[in-house]
Structures
1.
Amino acid sequence: MMEIRLSGSGGQGVITAAIIFAEAAIMEGKEAVQAQSYGPEARGGATKAEVIVSERPIFHPKVGQPDILLALTQQAANKYAAENKEDTVMVVDEDLVPEPPDTKRLVKVPITRLAVEKLGRDLFANIIALGVLVKISGAVTIESVQKAVAHRVPKATVEKNMEALRLGFEAVP
């Protein structure tokens, strides 16, 4: 079983990324649950999305201590790091989380900067982050995620989203 928490602020697309991850798992015949919560603000409020992927039935659909925590803001990193296990992999946007909490397994990627510099808009940061999560987790294949992305994003943006996915996947050694 793999438990992943994605966190950031409203408008960063963490919920969409979590939905796509869960859809990819289901396409592969795995069990998956996805849940989300967000602040009352439409944009800028705290946002959290969780995904659990398993080969067996999932009886408790809430992430307790994630295997992977994605934090796209300093506030999210500070808030959710306390719930990490000792071996949780913490993935942060290195520009938006300049002071990551102390953790044994930290992965820093310039997620938003890559979106702006390579694709022209920060809009693609969530799909870059998704590529990072696919690579680190190994819970789903990149091919399944590509299909789920193509199914979820506007047709006019499929090509750029595929590039964003590739950028994230390749950003992790």
2.
Amino acid sequence: MAQALMIDTKIRLSFEAGLNEKGEPIYKSKTIGNVKKTASADQIYQVTQALASLSNDPLATVVRNDSFDIVG
């Protein structure tokens, strides 16, 4: 039976950095690696809110990316 083994966790923060000539939002993102694999959604939310407070741009989205090795 195959198993999925988590090998890495990253978070990507996207910030709204302004508007283009059509009035559509421009996004800039920052990816942070070495996130603790066992971090809960609440813990990640608290950290990203603290990091976002250091930016001049408003935080638009937070995405958690988990990578797995599939072994059989």
3.
Amino acid sequence: MIDIKGITKSFGTLQVLKGIDLHIGKGEMVSIVGPSGAGKTTLLQIMGTLDRPDSGRIVIDGVDVGALGASRMAAFRNRHIGFVFQFHQLLPEFTAMENIMIPAYIAGTSNRDAARRAGELLDFMGLSHRAAHKPNELSGGEKQRVAVARALVNSPAVILADEPSGSLDTKNREELYQLFFELRDKFAQTFVIVTHDEQLAALTDRTVKMRDGLLDNAPAEGNINVNSFETI
């Protein structure tokens, strides 16, 4: 699903990524861990085409994204990549349903089809009864579920999550973890998750460790594959 070869990135004289090679398979859930300043978020932003590397190549779902111009890259990003951030970033003036529909509108989906897809996702998230509520009327966990639904509305090839549980309490963190695994199991959804949460990292299929702009040279760490969240 994602092939990264020789990615480097500098900001001024600070070299943040120093040659990253990484392969992530379809349906794989990978966590990226490491100390602050290791380059995790920069790598995720490049993976999500929110920034371009200085050198190297990244192929997502068979497309060499570095070869795309700005407009084609934006269209590719909207259709093929979903984002979940630590803070939900929902638009406060829109309802839960409308927030979910926005990426579908941008992709040119009709109002009818966007509403149908958003309704299906709200139902899957157990939030059908909150469809007409605005973000300030939702709990923290509900906001994050709406954000996940928004990331899924265009059926993207990959979900990129940056500290998705960082602002949640224990109960909502565990519910978010369960949701991620349900999505992976039901839709073979590929996830790449930057996290400091050791519990979440331990549950993913593989943990990639970063330090000082490089991947850890130790062999790739495969985590315990759990079929049910209740087993942890």
4.
Amino acid sequence: MTSTAAKPTDSDALSSRLIRQLRSGIGPLFAALVIICVVLSITSPEFLTTSTLTNIMVQVSVVGIAAVGGTFVIITSGIDLSVGSLVALSGMVAATLMAGSTPDNIGLGLAGLAIAIAVGAGVGALNGISVAWLRLVPFIVTLAMMAMARGLTLAISDGRTKFDFPNAFTAFGAKSVAGLPAPMIVMLVVFLIGHVLLRKTTFGHQVFAVGGNMEAARLAGIPVRRVIFLTYTLAGVTAAIAGIVLAGRLNSALPSAANGLELQVIAGIVIGGTSLAGGRGSIIGTFIGVVLIGVINVGLSLLGVNPFWTQFIQGGVIFAAVMLDALSQRRKN
């Protein structure tokens, strides 16, 4: 009588994936998030309430949405410093078109959404062309784009805030669905799409290959330049979506909007376990990293910590994350 091996069940596959995630570093990060939440709930009882937790998700929504595209870029060993300025620019271009319109102008609202995303995709594509085909240094290219996009935002607005947009545009930042704020829902949807794209598609596998060893990926037949181009374009699209959400939340577009956002985006990505050296990272890790920053910010505020110290602590967390990543790379080498 011959014995046959039992086929793995769905629960076994789920358990295996969970174990792999824990070993990848997401487990300790999630544990740190839980521990911080427990400590804050003890020291500040109002922390562990539905309103506070929802508020945290809304506060990190703009950073989180932009961080999804940024994760793809950093996994390819690139960097995008223009994301904050692009959030402002995409929102301002759409706002300039729609400023002063009536709330029920659906057509103009949809046009504003399309234009904002087109601006984000266009600027992201320009970054991608510069890095992939012109072979310029990502840090320098996106630093220059950060200045140009911010300057263009100020020029378009003449330094003034734009108000009054159609409901079709502001809905993504101001409305609620089944009691849940729209920014939170948009962020979760973008994270879900990003996770599927990174883990379940050929493009996602190519992103890891390019970041792990660009020359080996090229020899394996992977279109390296196209992959890099698409990651920067994707980062531009997610920045535009973040700009739409931000403008909707405020029902206005500010020339100084998202100033310094790029640092928060990179912090969330790096804290989430994505290596600045490329080849390693996850959307789930980025989500936990972004939420962790939001929890720290809100928690310190509830505890009455001086906002200046909050910024210092944020910097310390980023420094620790980068240092741990560097030590991990050294052990591998």
